[in-house]
Design goal:
CATH architecture: 2-Layer Sandwich
Largest sheet: 5 strands, antiparallel
Strand order of the largest sheet: 1-2-3-5-4
Order of helices and strands: HHHEEEHEEHH
Radius of gyration: 18 Å
Shape: globular
CATH superfamily: HIT-like
């Protein structure tokens, strides 16, 4: 009696997806210095260079440089604040409005069937850039996940980031 079937625990309906390659983000603390924050630097350049889709009054939307799926966007505050609770009412309202608009645009442009929408608050919670608030908008489609990233440590993104950004930006502004 030495196999996992003899370990204590209550069976549940969860499928476990073991991703040890993600451990580097947890252990190495790959947090940029404040003067190197990519979310502070992005709006300083052109939309193309910063991968920006839309610039609002208190927040902006840009493509994720390391997307989970094609069309993965981030809604960021211009201010360098770490926590959602530190936002102003205007920032929180615009972040919500831009997230909603981003979902509408992705449904139109890429026929997204669903979304993962969320924020990782703090390094402990898995935020890649913990000191600058950002919300993920990840489009999802039926059967869009597979084991290629785990087995081959490769994520297949079917379209170039610049092309997707231009298409999303055009649809965003065509409203």
């Amino acid at each position: 009696m030495t196999g996992p079937e003899f370990l204590p625990g209550v069976p549940d309906n969860y499928q476990r997806l073991w991703t040890p390659h993600r451990l580097v983000y947890i252990q190495n603390g790959q947090q940029p210095k404040k003067d190197e924050c990519p979310f502070c630097l992005a709006p300083q350049g052109s939309d193309e260079d910063g991968l920006i889709v839309f610039r609002g009054d208190t927040c902006f939307v840009l493509m994720n440089l390391f997307p989970y799926n094609s069309g993965h966007m981030l809604v960021c505050t211009y201010r360098h604040v770490a926590s959602y609770e530190d936002t102003t009412l205007e920032e929180a309202a615009e972040m919500a409005a831009l997230s909603k608009r981003g979902m509408q645009v992705l449904r139109k442009v890429s026929r997204a069937q669903g979304f993962n929408l969320g924020m990782n608050q703090g390094e402990l919670a898995g935020a890649g850039i913990a000191e600058h608030l950002h919300q993920h908008i990840v489009p999802r489609w039926s059967n869009d996940s597979n084991f290629f990233p785990i087995i081959a440590q490769t994520k297949a993104i079917p379209r170039l980031l610049g092309e997707v950004r231009a298409e999303i930006q055009k649809a965003w502004l065509d409203n």
